[in-house]
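Q: Structure tokens for this one, please.
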Amino acid sequence: MIGKIINIEEDNVIVKLEIDISKQSNLVNVHVIFESNNEKIVGEIRSISLDTAKIAVVGQITNNIFTPGGLKKPSFSSIVRIINMEELELILGKQTITGNDQITLGYSTIYNNYKINIGINSFFSNHFAILGNTGSGKSFTVSRLIQNIFTSSNYVPINSNIFIFDAYGEYKNAFSRLNEISPMLNTKCYTTDTISPDSEIFKIPLWLLKTDDIALLLEASVPSQLSIIDKALRLVPIIKGNDGESIKHCNDIIARAILDILKSGKDTIKISDQIKAILSTVSTPTLNLDTIIAQPGYNRPLKQCLFVDNNGKMLEMELVTNFMSTYLIDGLVEPVAREDVMYTLKDLEKAMEFALISEGILKSDKVFDYANILSVRLHTLVNSECNTFFEYDRMISRDEYIKSLITTNDGKKAQIINFNINSVNDRMAKSIVKIISKLLFDFSTKNKNRASIPFHIIVEEAHRYVQNDIDAELLGYNIFDRITKEGRKYGILLGLITQRPSELSDTSISQCSNFLILRTLHPKDLRYIKEMVPNMSEEVISMLKTLQPGNAIGFGSAFKVPTNVKIEKPNPEPLSNNCDVVKVWYSNN
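A: Here is the predicted structure, written as tokens:
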């Protein structure tokens, strides 16, 4: 017995100590039992002085089952004692793992050599977040957490699919020895470094991208741009084709655009210039500026018929109008977007030009303003190093592509798929993260055997990519919000790793069921954590400021109570060490 209850407050119990506290080890955060009439109330010592202790009620034990919560308070007659090992295991978990349903997270920072084991389903069947400042040990925690899944050679999670979006290229080293544990375990690495790649360059077939994906890639900002992208995707199989029907379809688009200009009533010089602009941008072998218009007695190229005389008249306007009308196709069926036609960014760029002409980009300044920016961004992408990411060399379906992501080059199943996105700017990195995440989500939702192929998407520096973007307004959804709200039932789970939780999407972080929080100092982030994370007291918030690197507090469905845990160093470690300034400065001494 350590003392007697002298006061019962709303959330805390004050105990008058009857032990010599100076002869005790540190009792802060140690659990105690308030025992009375076969009833056991569990508390945790939050603060202690020479003669009193403030203890928070965290739950109760009934029939050897611990139930968290502080609804029931102890009586003044309760015996107050330190928790024993048998009772502690009901709260923090047993010390021995006998099956394949648990992994070791780390060791308690309160109880010496006490393993903190967590249920795989209770943690990995839910979305989770790992939060903490730079240098607090997030990369080590992520690496160790995943390594611990694969530590047993008796239980090999061969069907796991863990996708890591690696913002700094840290994790390739951490999982390089996976195959040493079991020959059935493999890692597959992709890189965005096209200059000096140290692994396979990331590539995705362009024809698998839908309107929403291209909108993300081109940073569309208004809904009216979506119709242009949609039209370009429907036109690209036509533009790609060189057959007669495809050419007729392209001619119809050009002719209709030119006829609209001819009937616009604008100044003839402007009409002539706009028609020339169209045919300089889009043309076909049978309809271009050099196409011959045959008349009785002479033949002239189309560009000569666009001549405007000194009086401002286009003498052949009627001739050009009649000529263009011959290219119109009545009852033309609109093409549909297809995933069975290979095409490149240049093909898409040409289709975009046809889509813009079809939308009347030259007839309206308003259309020009919001539409031309898509063309400019696509042209920039075509001529950038990033165009490599969309140069896929063979026809592949959506399902085949996803299978290829989780299969090594020698045909083995890969359990960890690491995307090193360190070599591209944040805009491209965000697009890649969103596009792949959406691809996996769409696959999972269409899987007839729901949740039979779980995907875990772990996003490092998540505050860069999982934000309150305009996606919800533009597309009607944010892919990460959608994954966190709907993904669990389909087996697609999100892990958010960040040093700035206050910059994350509110919806995404609110749907996380488990949290590992390392040292956090920024007042805004601390306030955010207190509001977002359940069971977060002022005492725990204060603890977050002083946690040592590698120490974390675990909350959520995998933890019956907030749990202080020391994460062991991963082996091998991720490449996340700080710069050794002394070694560099004095290397010549």
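A few notes: The chain has a mean pLDDT of 91. The CA atoms of residues 408 and 414 lie 6 Å apart.
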